[in-house]
Design goal:
By secondary structure, the chain is mostly helical. It has ten helices and no strands. Helix 1 packs antiparallel against helix 2, helix 2 packs across helix 9 and helix 9 runs antiparallel to helix 10. The longest helix has 31 residues. It is globular.
């Protein structure tokens, strides 16, 4: 279990190490824009990665093949929590870079941006919705909330959709990267739909 936790943290910290490397080697002509893009993009990638864990665990274990079943993939379910928390951290960094370096902590500009620019509106909403998920990620709160915790954390699907929409509206020319993210999200949602349909059929 310790190795699973360490690997989860290592994967979550890799983007930060990459950005520190960029800071040392150079962030290009517009470092603020580059940092804003990198933190937002890694936040989105980790949000999608958190959705990928359940299919990653359930699909191989459903195959009747002994070597795969012996991998004990259920241990990596813990990565859902880690990826979600690291995604929250990078998205908070994304917002703070925008607020401090772009807006110089001018909250009137922030309010105007939220009202007038749709991509800011959906991005800010995604951040707000992530806050209760991050706060309630502790094991003690999960036990206390019971089924309410499960209902609350289903917001992650809606948050992913908002993050994708935020990214889509930011793109000026090249949409190729966006389509890969959208395909991944669609596949994860399809898996969830099929799993839910199978449970209903069993009942």
């Amino acid at each position: 279990m310790k190795n699973v936790k360490l690997i989860g943290h290592a994967l979550g910290l890799l983007p930060l190490l990459y950005m520190l490397f960029l800071g040392v080697t150079g962030l290009g002509a517009n470092p603020i824009e580059r940092l804003t893009h990198e933190t937002g993009q890694w936040g989105l990638i980790l949000l999608l990665a958190s959705l990928a864990i359940t299919p990653l665990v359930k699909l191989p274990t459903s195959v009747n093949f002994k070597p795969i079943k012996q991998l004990k993939l259920k241990k990596v379910m813990l990565w859902r929590k880690y990826f979600g928390l690291y995604a929250f951290c990078y998205i908070v960094m994304h917002f703070l870079i925008y607020l401090t370096l772009d807006l110089s902590l001018d909250f009137e500009f922030l309010i105007d941006d939220i009202k007038d620019r749709p991509y800011i509106t959906v991005g800010f909403l995604a951040l707000l919705l992530l806050v209760p998920l991050a706060v309630t990620s502790a094991q003690t709160l999960r036990r206390k909330m019971g089924r309410h915790w499960i209902r609350l954390h289903k917001l992650v699907y809606f948050i992913n959709a908002l993050a994708l929409l935020h990214f889509f509206w930011l793109i000026r020319a090249d949409y190729s990267e966006f389509w890969w993210y959208l395909i991944a999200f669609s596949l994860f949602m399809l898996f969830r739909f099929v799993e839910k349909a199978r449970r209903l059929v069993r009942v």
